[in-house]
Each structure stands twice: as structure tokens, then as C-alpha cells.
From TrEMBL:
Coiled coil: none annotated. It comes from the Bacteria. It comes from Streptomyces sp. SID7499. Belongs to the UPF0065 (bug) family. This is Tripartite tricarboxylate transporter substrate binding protein. InterPro entries: BUG.
Amino acid sequence: TNKSPSTLADTTPIARLTEEPDIVVVSKDSPYRTIADLLAAWKKDPARVPVGGGSSPGGPDHLAPMLMAQAAGIAPRTVNYVPFDGGGE
């Protein structure tokens, strides 16, 4: 629901306990051909570019795109994150 009273700004990383590689992929029929294309559309309307992952909000598949959004100047709370039952879904 993106209604948490806490944000990434309220946290301080103190240890890396796991490492999980993340990738960005789009459908072969997607209009996005480069990461620049995707970021431009995402910045224009973050809610219209859904981001999916195999973990609940707060898990690694959720945090990775939120960190990417933040680095791109997109407020993480505006991102449309869709959790799936597993990473292969």
C-alpha cells in the first residue's frame, strides 16, 4: 500500500549479510529497447511502469528496484511494485 511511516531515508546500512544479483528485463514486445528508454518512461509516470519481483515488500526483489528508482530521482513510494510468488513467475 506504500503507506509505511518509514522510508529508505530512515535507515542506515550497517552490514551486508547476503548478496543477490538483480537484473532488469522487459518483454520482447516492450517499447523499451534501452535502460534509458525505460528510465525516461518510469520518470514520466512511475505508477504506469509496473515493477515485479519474487518477494514481498521489504524483501530483496522489492528493495532493488526501489534503490534504482531512488538513484534515478523517482520517489520509491510512487513505484508500482507487483510481488509474485517466486522469482521465476
